[in-house]
Amino acid sequence: MSIQVQHLSKQFGTFAALHDVTLNVPDGQLVALLGPSGSGKTTLLRVIAGLEIPDTGRVLLGGQDITHAGPGGRGIGFVFQHYALFKHLSVFENVAFGLKVKRGGQRPAPPVIRDKVMRLLELVQLDWAAARYPAQLSGGQRQRVALARALAVEPQVLLLDEPFGALDASVRQELRDWLRRLHDEIHLTSIFVTHDQAEALEIADRIVVFNAGQIEQEGTPEEVYDHPATLFTYRFLGKANVLARAGGQVTLARPHDLHLHSESVPGAWAGVITRIHVVGPEARVDVARSDDSGALEVYLPKTQLGGASVGQVVYLTAERQATLPEGESPQRFRLRS
Ligand SMILES: Nc1ncnc2c1ncn2[C@@H]1O[C@H](COP(=O)(O)OP(=O)(O)OP(=O)(O)O)[C@@H](O)[C@H]1O
């Protein structure tokens, strides 16, 4: 089911947590809200969930205005960063909870509940753990139970607030892949909040970049990464090397888009290698520019490092670069609405 928010604003005292936010999430998409801490991502999710009432603006679910509907009646599943499972209930009981507390005629019969819970536990690959208690599971497993629990009541949409934030890197990676696969299987319209750009780029259909309570840019991962419309988006999506500044514009290049040469080539910048740092299969090379205009960081496969060494004079070219206005974003961009 599609989600639309139109001209949403929300103040906390004098602080504008959301300012005139308009966003369309088509049916079946997985959308990432990406932005720094305090930029309003969680507030937007809470407004959509009905946990926060906006000062102005509307929320529509499948075209229907639900701005003033209570959180219970919205058909929205919510998964938080800190898996709030019931500690005294088994995994099975946790997932069954939302079904068992349904009123009278809406409550499925016990065998139906059992079948449904077991199917969901299979979906999150935890059917073997049905009788366990949350304390007997790892963090990633608990988070999968939380997801199964949110899905049990057949929500129309799923909201995930930093669902993997509290987990270590390898478990996060595993759950990311898994969430993407799950989404491809069930096509539930989902919005997830993250401040991890790699996570957003990897699994989202669309990315919405937030900055200070407003949408800075939205688009597919390729659009926002390859065509950032503002300096803020460029910097937020990855490491940025400043190549030049002139007339209120700044020219930037990503570390992967810089090439190192041992001999001078036309249009290259000269510099000296100050550090070589190998991170797994990748080499990161710091170069101090000879014209004293600052340091550049270059990433390349370790196998292409050749005989490069600290102190060596090298020449740099940029395969791709972007020129953007400096300073605060003069306007908010939207690649496609
Ligand atoms: N109930 C509240 N009362 C007062 N201020 C609030 C309240 N909820 C949020 N804020 C403020 O609104 C701003 C946006 O908060 P929000 O949680 O939406 O940001 P976020 O982008 O989700 O950040 P994070 O990534 O740290 O979770 C923050 O400055 C926060 O302090």
Defining key terms:
alpha+beta, 6-stranded mixed sheet, binds adenosine-5'-triphosphate, OB fold (Dihydrolipoamide Acetyltransferase, E2P), 18 strands, globular, disordered C terminus, 8 helices, Rossmann fold, 337 residues
Question: How does this structure look, described?
Answer:
By secondary structure, the protein is an alpha+beta fold. The protein folds into 2 domains: 3-232, Rossmann fold (3-Layer(aba) Sandwich), CATH 3.40.50.300; 255-319, OB fold (Dihydrolipoamide Acetyltransferase, E2P). 25% of the residues lie in helices and 33% in strands. It has helices at residues 41-49, 91-100, 110-123, 139-152, 169-186, 197-203, 221-226, 231-236, and strands at 3-12, 15-25, 30-34, 56-61, 64-65, 76-79, 157-161, 189-194, 206-211, 214-219, 241-246, 249-253, 258-261, 269-279, 282-289, 295-301, 313-318, 322-325. The strands form 4 sheets. It has a 6-stranded mixed sheet, sandwiched between helices. Strands 13-17-14-15-16 form a 5-stranded antiparallel sheet, with no helix packed on it. A 4-stranded antiparallel sheet has the order 2-1-4-5, with helices on one face. Helix 2 packs parallel to helix 4 (139-152). It is globular, with a radius of gyration of 24 Å. It binds adenosine-5'-triphosphate. The site of adenosine-5'-triphosphate (ATP) has 11 residues, from helix 1. InterPro entries: AAA+_ATPase, ABC_SmlMolc_Importer, ABC_transporter-like_ATP-bd, ABC_transporter-like_CS, P-loop_NTPase, Sulph_transpt1, TOBE-like. Keywords: ATP-binding, Cell membrane, Membrane, Nucleotide-binding, Sulfate transport, Translocase, Transport. One of its GO terms (molecular function) is ATP binding. Residues 3-237 form the ABC transporter domain. This is Sulfate/molybdate ABC transporter ATP-binding protein.
